[in-house]
């Protein structure tokens, strides 16, 4: 903006006559970095709540009188934690919100202006806390659940917006025909089935819900657009990048139409067979590393739920032992584990129009079963379950394993196909991944004899060890019984006349549970020796101990 345009903007803001929830005036420069981040979060959310496109923070104007006094604030030159303040602020806003910073010369007075885009359907947080301006006060948004709900329900569906200057000529002919074939198959029992071949493209695409009255939407371009039409979405991105990150390195970008690109990405992934050797079976069990339906489910979920406002591509990384899917934007409703059992159905979508079109093309379902189906596929193929634990506030990261983390866990699934319900499998999967579980879950597993150990170091129990031939590991985890440990000490003293503490440590340390650290093991030995006071005692000093047997006479 030119200085004249900035002066006009300042005058328009002054005409409001006072501060508003989406408009903050500051006279001085006494705002620290954290406070500035909170203001940007609060003004973005307040702008959404008040149905205005932008919030404003203006330095150099008295809030009581609206007098223009200028400011010494200098945003551009400020540093925070060793980096530019601008980088620090933007890095800690989630989801990222577009804001602009301007410096205005208003009749010789310097004014600094922050123009902040309104939050889009998800409250903007700074350092994981969402703020809002209520009247003239900045406060945590969580204190105002009605305003939180209003922001969440304010969703503008970008995927349904008409693209200026785009026409049906920008759509891929082959993709349209393939879409028509799938639409016919999906609707073969409908009364209009025989008419589908006679529909013009305009009619068909409207029925498919990718166009609106013959006009091209963002959804139409994402799913069916020609590659060369990608500029019509700019700066938004509709692209999938496949990366091979193994002993070999490779990559390839797949652009629109994404309806076809998902199968091209699938063809890139190397899907060899994996062998399991179950206990008590002579013949190995062989399964594909990956389930093709799960790969397509993950890819299509990335497309459907991507936050396109973040201008980011979808990335699929192929490791030697797993696939990693990354898409921009956190879970729009709930979190991944809410959908593990197939009991939750989402009420809202980030890209409602896009989701509806993808349902019509059989790419996804709208009932929230996608994650559940991937979970079942992994369980039925004896692999670790899909893992969303690395996801962040503005990014979903899904890992699908193509190998076993703990092969004995897989053997357990093979040998107990009907003996474990999905909830138990989910919890045992967390145990093998060393992921914490709740006390209630641990109690349930322990009651069923499935786990042992102390919180948080649970491990596979003797019952499962029996089934999976893991008795040695179980013994290492549990440690030897107290009586056995005492017998080692007594036997050593009988052979050598006495035992120093260092000798006792050397004798017992590797026989204590694996989940104890060194300090905890030494404390356990302390307690053991104290418990043997009727049979041995220390005739040496505290630092130079010399344990001998007590003579009964």
From TrEMBL:
The residue range of the signal peptide is none
Q: Which UniProt keywords apply?
A: ATP-binding, Helicase, Hydrolase, Nucleotide-binding
Chain ranges of the Schlafen AlbA-2 domain: 19-140
Q: Which GO terms describe its molecular function?
A: helicase activity
Task: Kindly give the InterPro entries that the UniProt entry links to this protein.
Answer: RecG_C_sf, Schlafen_AlbA_2_dom, Schlafen_AlbA_2_dom_sf
Q: What is this protein called?
A: ATP-dependent DNA helicase RecG
Species of the source: Algoriella xinjiangensis
């Amino acid at each position: 903006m030119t200085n004249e345009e900035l002066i006009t903007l300042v005058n328009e803001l002054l005409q409001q006559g006072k501060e508003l929830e989406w408009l903050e005036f500051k006279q001085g420069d006494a705002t620290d970095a954290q406070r500035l981040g909170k203001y940007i979060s609060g003004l973005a959310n307040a702008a959404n709540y008040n149905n205005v496109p932008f919030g404003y923070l203006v330095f150099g104007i008295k809030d009581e009188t609206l007098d223009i006094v200028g400011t010494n604030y200098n945003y551009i030159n400020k540093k925070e934690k060793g980096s530019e303040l601008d980088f620090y602020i933007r890095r800690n806003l989630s989801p990222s919100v577009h804001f602009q910073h301007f410096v205005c010369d208003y009749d010789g007075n310097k004014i600094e202006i922050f123009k902040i885009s309104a939050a889009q359907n998800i409250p903007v947080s700074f350092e994981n806390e969402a703020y809002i301006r209520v009247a003239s006060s900045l406060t945590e948004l969580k204190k105002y659940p009605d305003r939180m709900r209003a922001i969440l329900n304010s969703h503008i569906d970008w995927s349904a917006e008409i693209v200026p200057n785009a026409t049906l000529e920008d759509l891929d002919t082959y993709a349209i025909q393939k879409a028509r074939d799938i639409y016919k198959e999906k609707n073969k029992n409908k009364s209009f089935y025989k008419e589908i071949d006679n529909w013009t493209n305009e009619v068909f695409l409207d029925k498919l819900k990718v166009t609106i009255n013959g006009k091209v939407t963002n959804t139409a371009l994402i799913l069916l657009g020609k590659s060369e039409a990608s500029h019509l979405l700019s700066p938004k991105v509709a692209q999938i990048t496949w990366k091979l990150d193994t002993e070999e390195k490779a990559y390839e970008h797949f652009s629109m139409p994404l309806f076809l690109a998902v199968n091209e990405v699938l063809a890139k992934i190397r899907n060899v067979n994996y062998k399991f050797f179950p206990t008590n079976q002579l013949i190995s069990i062989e399964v594909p590393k990956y389930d093709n339906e799960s790969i397509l489910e993950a890819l299509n979920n990335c497309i459907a739920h991507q936050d396109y406002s973040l201008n980011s591509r979808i990335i699929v990384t192929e490791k030697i032992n797993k696939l990693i899917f990354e898409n921009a934007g956190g879970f729009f409703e709930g979190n991944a584990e809410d959908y593990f059992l197939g009991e939750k159905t989402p009420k809202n979508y980030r890209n409602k129009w896009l989701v509806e079109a993808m349902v019509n093309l059989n790419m996804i379902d709208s009932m929230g079963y996608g994650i559940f189906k991937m979970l079942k596929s992994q369980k039925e193929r004896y692999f670790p379950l899909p893992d969303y634990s690395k996801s962040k506030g503005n990014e979903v990261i899904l890992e699908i394993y193509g190998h076993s983390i703990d092969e004995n866990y897989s053997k357990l699934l093979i040998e107990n196909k009907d003996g474990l319900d999905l909830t138990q499998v989910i919890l045992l999967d967390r145990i093998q991944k060393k992921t914490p579980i709740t006390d209630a879950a641990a109690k349930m597993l322990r009651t069923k004899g499935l786990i042992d150990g102390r919180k948080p170091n649970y491990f596979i129990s003797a019952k499962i060890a029996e089934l999976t031939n893991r008795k040695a590991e179980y013994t290492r985890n549990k440690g030897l019984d107290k009586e056995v440990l005492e017998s080692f000490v007594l036997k050593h003293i009988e052979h050598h006349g006495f035992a120093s503490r260092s000798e006792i440590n050397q004798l017992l340390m590797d026989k204590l549970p694996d989940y104890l650290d060194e300090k905890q093991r030494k404390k356990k030995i302390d307690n053991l020796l104290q418990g043997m006071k009727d049979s041995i005692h220390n005739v040496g000093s505290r630092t130079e101990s010399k344990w001998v047997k007590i003579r009964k006479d």
